Amino acid sequence: MSATATAVNHPALPEEIGAPTPARPRLLLLATGLVSMAVAVGYSALVGIYLYARAEVLHSGEQWLPRGVTIPLTQPNMMMFTLVFSVATLAWATSAMRNDDRANFFIAVGMSMLFGFAYIAQTGFLLTIMELGVRDDTRAPLIYALVGTHVVLMVAALAYLAAMTLRALGGDYSAKDLEGIYGASLFWYTTVGLYLVLWYAVYITK
Amino acid sequence: MALTDTRPETDAPVATTIAVSQLDAALGSGDHKTTGRLWLGAGALMLLAGLAVSTAAALEGVDLGSSTVVDDQGRFIQLWAMGRELLLFGGLVPLLIGLATFIVPLQVGSSSLAFPRGASAAFWSWFVSTDLLVVAYIFNGGPGGGRNDYVVMWALALSGMLLSIMWALVCIATTVLGARATGMSLDRVPVSAWGFLVFSLGGLLALPILVAQLALAYIDIKYGFLPDREARTSLLAITDTATLAPGLYWVGVPVLGIAVEAIGVHTGAPIRFRRAVMAALGLLGLTSFGAEFFAFAGRGRGFDFHNGLLVVSLLLAAVPVLASLALAGESLKRGTFKVRTPLVAGLLAGLLLLVGVLVGILGAVWPIVTFIESQLDTNVSLDSAFDVNGTSYHDGLRGLIMGAGVLGAIAGVHHWGHKVWGRSLDDRLGLLTALAAAGGAVAWAVGGVASGFLEQTRLPLSVENAKDGVEAMNGVTVLGTALLAVAALLLALNLARTAFGGGSANEPWQGATLEWATASPPPAANFDAQPIVTSALPLIDGVGAVATTDASDGSEAEAAATEESATAGGSD
Known about the structure:
The complex is a heterodimer of chains A (206) and B (572).
Chain A: H1 27-59, H2 74-98, H3 102-130, H4 139-169, H5 179-204
Helix pairs in contact in A: 1-4, 1-5, 2-3, 2-5, 3-4, 4-5
Chain B: H1 22-28, H2 32-59, H3 73-107, H4 116-138, H5 148-178, H6 191-222, H7 229-232, H8 236-243, H9 252-266, H10 274-298, H11 308-334, H12 341-376, H13 393-421, H14 427-453, H15 470-499, E1 529-533, H16 538-541, E2 543-548, E3 557-561
Antiparallel strand pairs in B: 1-2, 2-3
Helix pairs in contact in B: 2-3, 2-4, 2-15, 3-4, 3-5, 3-13, 4-5, 5-6, 6-8, 6-9, 6-10, 9-10, 9-11, 9-12, 9-13, 10-11, 11-12, 12-13, 12-14, 13-14, 13-15, 14-15
């Protein structure tokens, strides 16, 4: 055993080890999984704080939403459908790249990103019609924190997908190597999953 | 010039080399070894700063009737919070991340850390955020702060520190999970690398909860929902779950991993029951996260420390610590005890952690008894002093766990110091450092726990309700934090001396794991050739290697060679 034990003078690998082709580590996908896990935990903590605060207010006999504030159902539902569609188009994109069909891949990714932008625009519109000033009430910061954090997550998901699409445009990724596409999709799906939590906890149960 | 013309003679092309200064290398390097050294150096300095501030805050308790360091309660709370945050997120965690960033890729046989530039970015963003945190406190920010803008700055800076730490943890976890050498299954990774994996996953599960609370706090502060200093004192609760036991047991996981590994190497008797130790580390990670989660979930309901599941987590945490130490004890029995810093510091770290989890159980006595009383409708008449919730008992317990963490970091830095700098740290100075740290942690704990049982509230310090002996116990706490600060100073001096050419150049000891198979410090791509392993102790059981044309990306295998000297014993 020496300090340079790997600089060995051995003639060949034993047969059972075989040719030394290193397995391609899926580091990006692994890291995305870990980040998605952390994001899900953090967002769940926010939702937990929100639900607890709401339960306390309701328990005291008060109304949760401040007087004059209403959360319409149409916009949140449309936002949910938008994001569900984006999941379908992103699955289409992944499937296209798996078949080396780059034309379909770019169309599908473009549609997914369009849905993402549409979601952000719809959120902005919803906040406008809710007429909830952030300084109005102690409950407003909670709602803004939940909605705002989710918009930030969507922006991050869009940026990730855009970066991977640019790499695909540059010639990266094919049916044999989809890691970046899978990574961006995983983060996107996590973001959509968290919207479903937001949709139910804030918009539906109010 | 026609093709048939004779080409004019020209000078042979001269290879151009780009001079890279040390500053350039430090600022722009994507090499995990440089990043690891930066984490270690900055972490040691911040640990010293955190302990100095903690000592200053503790001084306030020595004479409760007068002001010693600061002139009002709000300032005291700021000082106290600053010390606590700097100690954990500025000092101890960065030190552990520094060790992991440097050592883990070597241990798993990888040519690099996963996302090395990302890891470098994580260090620099943490560094800037930590500086901003200090600035925020200096300008009257932080919990209990008097200037709104600087309280906002505190929230942003602490979030920046946590996010940077989380990104560094992602890089470490991804390396262990996805960049291992051929033949190295997950159960063959060294115990310390496994500890760092559990530490990383635990951090990624627990720290986002803090960030979420900070996001809410940011909006609250920014939009005036915490209008005065008293209201801003509530911000202290945000970091409670992570900086106090049992959530703090999280840092015990890598400390135990380092301790067990150091014991195996320095006794000359590798750990026999590796998988059991790995399972124990996993369980400790699980219970510390569980405890933190339950503490978070229970907070606001007024029974944070009395939450049943939290108590179960407190009790469970003792099992893996005891098991790990018992399994490491088998190596001690089999091998030879050599008085070396890594072994002594590792042992002391393990023992302090054990005492810490046992003292933690002491804190669970009151809730358990109250529960039994309520269920059986009986009255056990337990002394109310056992109700330590909200007292300085928690700080005493924190002293034990932080002391164990500092000792673990000392053990790790001395164990791998030669690998990091190519020169060993001074072992005698290391022993002195370890003893100072252990003595400091014990004194801190004795002072804190004793004053807790004397019902001294944690914050604010109150002179009206102070019982006899509290001030003396607070003096013992000051002694403890000061001794720990001395240990941090000695560690920083030893590190600086070694980094700037001091220390011994001889390879002091050799372990059986892959990091010992390469030069000290390792070459650019860590290994001259890609290692192939066939057991958990490759340097005992035989390590193979694959030479590569370009080891930096490890992509093309050109020639192959291996060593199959499967000697008896030693495998897991």
